[in-house]
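Example is below:
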Amino acid sequence: MTAFVALLTSLPTGNSTIRMRVWRSLKTTGCAVLRDGVYVLPQAAPQAATLAEAEAAVRTAGGFAMTTELSLRTPAQSEYVHKLFDRSEEYRELVARIGAARASLRRLGKRKAETLVQRLRRSFEALVAIDFYPGPAHAQATDALSALEAEMQRAFSVGEPHSAKGKLRRLDPARYRNRVWATRKDPWVDRLASAWLIQRFIDRDARFVWVERPRDRPKGSIGFDFDGAMFTHVESRVTFETLLMSFSLDHDPALASLGNAVHFLDIGGIPVADARGLETILKGVKGKTRSDDETLIEASKVFDLFYSAYAQRAPE
């Protein structure tokens, strides 16, 4: 059975300040309330250490508090305690908010819509952090948020490629060397990652052209990440993943991990732990550089580091 840790408290009746402070601290941990003054968390939860901090705060204020291991002896006891951590209702409320947001996106305009989607993403991540036993409600909320983020892309990302249908062919990299590669100007995650992948693994002498409109690309150039390009979104894959598959690079675990982060940042889907960190760094790159070529140079250093870290982790 799952091991639990419990905090037993008796707070001073005359000190409402410490009572409120302790309650707010415990609420953020996602702990269950077994009864008045008894708070429970799975022993393996990262938030379990907060119970000891709350114990110290209560003792300092003159109250009684102790943390102890909660040993459940029967399946019925275990089932009862597990149900205390059921987040289904919270997920249902979040899914309802996501549905309402999706219906109003286009009316809000880009800036307000982005703020709303970011707020819902933070709410989802905060809920996931205290969902110790994910179930169907978690999956439903994940799908709803992915659909919202995809709708956001369709509504406000001018020139973003639509997903094409069809099977991908394995290609010979030797036929794609020393070429001119064209994509839309002002590149972001998928285009930057794709350009890095091309330069590092497919065409080391690649030259990149950033165009206002896809039809402006130079004759004979290879297009990527726009509708009608040779390499673009296909089925559920973003352009980076299409390139991985097309050039038989999809068996590299480090590139696959990077692909997961790029996919999540570009069109949503299953949350990836490192994705938000990658996004933050790339935003810093975009704010610092003055041209698309310079942005790619600096972003490539970031992708190099992420790839190196993933490669070191892969054998584990």
Remarks:
- The mean pLDDT is 89.
- The radius of gyration is 25 Å.
